[in-house]
Specification:
Structural class: alpha+beta
Shape: globular
Order of helices and strands: EHHHEEHEHEEEEEEHEEEEEE
Distance between the termini: 30 Å
Radius of gyration: 21 Å
Helix content: 10-25%
Largest sheet: 10 strands, mixed
Oligomer: single chain
Number of helices: 6
Length: about 300
């Protein structure tokens, strides 16, 4: 007997809830914000909108379906199943945070705060949930992801971008190479390397691209192409700056070999879930075979 579909509702703790957890009561949180020229009602209103959206989506799940909820902080401990339909209720970034834990399950993005979120990934409103759940396996966009694989089999996936560098603000030292460029390798000292997708080109990757005035064409979200940038490469007698930006096709890869005591690679801004690299280890970054199946 096949299992009924399960709607997995992904949400995150609101700013209001974080304030109450830190200060104990609504009144104390309100006093804290007022002393800094802010009104707690703005934060509380966003909290109410988020909770209404979550309740509305939950009510739209068909009665014959199973249902589960998972908070962002628990994603790495949650076991997604093949029959799941994942409904992300919140901001665009929450879809990216969820994508790395999925294996082809369709994802519906619900915007809890239209006008505040860009709506690149959370494309729908709570009122659309019933219709979208009924047709979740049709009309999906398959968005390209990026992966990093270390020589000790550590693997990391991301929807927007992967950053390689140091855990703090120290200079990252490494050797950078392109697999399809005749074995050219350059020793570098920089603020790190950013490798991103077409989805990432709407965020951090785009800001680096724009600030640099790059002429590289940014990929579209479904395109099997990545763009990479070295941030603030430092020229010295031992380090170069000739390999600081480029593209990676579907079969190409960027390789980074650590020449620092510790480097990390993390995806989509989640530094707590990172690959750990020590001196001499190599990581390969390229287009991931998996895709995020986002309901259009």
């Amino acid at each position: 007997m096949s299992l009924a579909p399960r709607a997995v509702l992904v949400h995150r703790t609101t700013e209001y809830e974080e304030l109450i957890a830190r200060h104990g009561t609504h009144g104390q949180a309100a006093f804290f914000l007022a002393s800094r020229g802010r009104d707690i009602e703005e934060v509380a209103a966003r909290h109410r909108r988020a909770r209404r959206a979550l309740a509305e989506v939950a009510a739209a799940v068909p009665l014959t379906w199973r249902q589960a909820r998972v908070e962002r902080g628990d994603l790495d401990r949650f076991l997604f199943a093949p029959e799941d339909v994942v409904v992300v209720i919140g901001q665009d970034g929450l879809v990216a945070n969820t994508a790395k834990y999925l294996l082809g399950q369709p994802v519906i993005g619900i915007d809890t705060d239209p006008g505040r979120n860009p709506g690149v990934l959370v494309r729908h409103r709570p009122a659309d949930a019933a219709r979208l759940l009924a047709a979740a396996d049709t009309a999906v966009d398959e968005l390209t992801m990026v992966e990093a694989v270390a020589d000790d089999t550590q693997r990391l996936l991301a929807l927007n971008e992967i950053y390689l560098g140091t855990p703090g603000h120290q200079t990252a030292r490494y050797r950078l190479g392109l697999e399809d460029d005749g074995g050219v390798v350059e020793a570098q000292a920089s603020s790190g390397v950013l490798v991103g997708t077409g989805t990432g080109a709407t965020g951090w990757l785009r800001s680096v691209w724009q600030e640099r005035g790059s002429r590289l064409p940014l990929p579209s979200p479904a395109e099997d192409r990545l763009v990479w940038f070295v941030r603030e490469a430092w020229p010295s007698p031992a380090t170069g700056t000739s390999l600081v930006a480029g593209e990676l096709g579907a079969s190409a890869a960027l390789t980074v070999t650590a020449e620092s005591d510790r480097l990390i690679a993390f995806g989509d801004g989640i530094e707590t879930d990172a690959l750990q690299l020590t001196w001499g280890q190599t990581v390969r970054v390229g287009v991931c075979g998996q895709r995020l199946r986002l309901v259009g």
